[in-house]
Amino acid sequence: MALRIEPGSAHPLGATPGGGVNFALFSAHAERVELCLFEPGAPAESARVTLPGRTGDIWHGFVPGLAVGQHYGYRVHGPQEPHRGHYFDPYKLLVDPYARELSGPVDWPAWGEEVAGGDRHDSAPGTPRGVVVDDGTFDWTGDTRPGTSWPNTIIYEVHVGGYTRLRPDVPAQARGTFEGLAHPHVVEHLLRLGVTAVELMPVHAFVDDAFLVRRGLRNFWGYSTLGFFAPETRYLGERGRDGFKAMVRTLHQAGIEVILDVVYNHTCEGNHLGPTLSFRGIDNASYYRLAHGNPARYRDETGCGNTLDVSHPQVLALVLDSLRYWAEVMHVDGFRFDLATALARGVNGFEAQGRFFSALAADPLLSKLKLIAEPWDVGPEGYRLGGFPPGWAEWNDRYRDTVRRFWLQPGNPLPEFARRVHGSGDLFDHPGRGPWASVNYVASHDGFTLRDLVSYEQRHNEANGEDNRDGHSDNHANNHGVEGPTDDPHINALRARQARNLVATVLLSQGTPMLLAGDEMGRTQDGNNNAYCQDNEIGWVDWSRLAEEDELIDLVARLCRIRAEHPVLRQGGFVHGESLGPVTGLRDIDWLRPDGQRMNDDDWNAPDARCLGMLLSAPVASSAVPGAAAGEDVLLIVFNAAAHVLSFAPPRSARFAAVFSGWRCLLSTGAACLVTDAAVVVPERSVCVFEPVMGHTRT
User: Fold this and answer.
1) What is the pLDDT of residues 192-250, one digit of tens each?
2) Which of 94, 130, 389, 658 is the most exposed place for a label (fewest CB within 10 A)?
3) What is the pLDDT of residues 400-452, one digit of tens each?
4) What's the CATH code of the domain at 460?
5) CB 220 within 8 A of CB 535
6) Rounded CA gap, 593 and 403, in Å?
């Protein structure tokens, strides 16, 4: 095929339509770049032409007459010198890092041997191609970001493919797609719960690793990115890319934000023996952090074989361009950064004031979005919980483990438990940060589901094909007497109560609560705590339990309503028991023992202490808070992990008694609470929430 090509422009990077298509690709060390054009589904290119223009390290060319829908890729010529960090190989067709859409997945049998290069095997038949798209045709009229403040945020972590795959009232062709997530019945469920944001597990185009394909498995979670601009093709429904945009618009109309879990710390190309699909063949020495003294190998600070070098100006630009694309063009509201420590590594290790953070802080759009860090990687000094800059929130695994231990393990973690439900001030009480910076959770995609946490003590990951060696070995879990399913009604009742205790603690703690999708329906993975490769019933949400778990769903919804109605649960700053309520004279926070007295050092360290009261008071602008005196919101939360009923004496000062007649129970995760003049009776192993009763008649 004869093809006319002009020098075109170096910007923007990627494939840009308009009277033809302009192509631009960064490579600092290439010697020549060939553009390859394909007919859809064809194993080989219909045309191949050298990009004629080079501006700095950008190779570019313009092809008149090409249009939206054109499939393309690159072959990049240069030295095959691993000892210098170069893996150029023109036999490998390469995916454009700026491609807005990919033609499909990697076809490993057609792709060839899984080696870094040099085998003279043409990979084009098995490599996805970029697809030229026009992003200006979707009608965003009327779309408005919900703009939920951090203190008012409740996150719901969702896997797009697994969430609706088994939802019977979603049309079959929409299940497991963006369109399925936007189905009215699904949105209705989200609204019933009261969550304010969905955090979508990776939706950037990713690869089913070859070793998984050989086992008959797939990369279910998606933490193996190939394209940072292209949506994963398996999540596209009948509307294609517009289905993602329509999903965002629909969720925004419901007041729900969309946060993307993004993986910029590594790519799908693995270590030096991995496949050459894109970055390695385009400019390995620029894109990746290479091992000191051995550029043929990578600095693997992610545990995934390689680490992107975000300190490189062009790689940083790639990450920022990708983030802006999803924010500006796709209208998402924030990002959760996988292994975020790796993104801030420079020559001196983790740099809290480095280029990555500075660039985000200076960006007029990105700086206003929700930014969440997974605050660790596997490199030296990679655990950085509490160390991210102002404006960032962080997944708090210390919260997760402490709350699990409090409810499910013997011992006395009371001081640590109090720190966590207080918002982890020991970690986040710094200028520019508040309790909301702690993303509190007890279950996420990585680990046991809520139901499995109270049903298993050991991981059961045999289906992963790794001899049950993968996944966390220390889960702070409790099977309550039997490993896995049981018909024993007493064990099942206790498990259900403990699950309620765990989710109630998350939603009643200071900080940003996060729930794992399906936990409200008793979702199980059969004890698999690392279901990264289980794109099947193990990993999918089972909606058949919707009616069976109505009580748990209602509890989650009620907790979300209580949180929304009581500002004292959503404070923007830390409280330390210093300020007094304007009506009651109560301190903004008090820790109480069962007799109603403040905890002292001996109480905190008592080996048999299993109960803690948290008394909260906060000024409010009006008396609109249910049960609150004008100008003050007051709640008493009792966490009773003891295996017996406790009598708890709420405070009744003279100022308090002048306004309130006593207390009433808003919520109990166990049996009904008994409230008397002198005390409240707290059921065994339960969370109870009490509010003051106005006037002089208890209701």
Assistant:
1) 999 999 999 999 999 999 999 999 999 999 999 999 999 999 999 999 999 999 999 99
2) 658
3) 999 999 999 988 789 999 999 999 999 999 999 999 999 999 999 999 999 99
4) 3.20.20.80
5) yes
6) 19
The encoded tokens of residue 569 equal: 């649960």
Per the CB < 8 A criterion, the answer to whether 93 and 127 are in contact is yes
Confidence of residue 697 (pLDDT cuts 50, 70, 90): very low
- Structure confidence by residue, pLDDT tens digits, 528-583: 999 999 999 999 999 998 888 889 999 999 999 999 999 999 999 999 988 888 88
Annotated catalytic residue 535: no
Does 424 share its domain with 553? yes
Q: Do the Cβ atoms of 276 and 94 come closer than 8 Å?
A: yes
Give the integer Cα–Cα distance in Å for 338 and 228. 13
Catalytic member of 89, 179, 374, 446? 374
Domains in the chain, number: 2
- 338, 397, 452, 588: the catalytic one is 338
> Given 544, 567, 590, which residue is the final one in a domain?
567
Residue 224 and residue 198 share a domain: yes
| Phi, psi dihedral angles at 127 (to 5 degrees) | -100, 135
Please list the alpha-helical segments (H only) found in 597-645: 601-605
d(CA 480, CA 489): 12
* Burial (CB count within 10 angstroms: exposed 0-12, middle 13-18, buried 19+), residue 238: exposed
33: region left, alpha or beta (phi > 0 left; psi from -120 to 50 alpha): beta
Same domain, 604 and 480: no
Q: Which residue is associated with the tokens 């109270």?
A: 454
Q: How far is CA 673 from CA 417, 498, 627, 666, 668, in A?
A: 23, 17, 18, 9, 7
Token output for 461:
């990951």
Return the closest-CA partner of residue 464 out of 223, 158, 219, 206. 219
Those residues whose C-beta lies under 8 Å from the C-beta of residue 523, and which sit 6 or more positions away, are 449, 450, 451, 516, 517, 541, 542, 545
Q: Is 214 exposed, middle or buried (0-12, 13-18, 19+ CB in 10 A)?
A: exposed
Question: Cα separation of 612 and 501, whole Å?
Answer: 14
User: Do 559 and 594 belong to one domain?
Assistant: no
Q: Is 538 domain-assigned? A: yes
Please report whether residue 122 resides in a domain.
Answer: no
For 638, the token pair is 């009792």
User: Active site includes 554?
Assistant: no
Spatial distance between the Cα atoms of 149 and 146, rounded to a whole number of angstroms: 9
Same domain, 405 and 453: yes
Range of the domain at 198: 156-264+283-338+348-567
DSSP letter (8 states) at residue 102: B
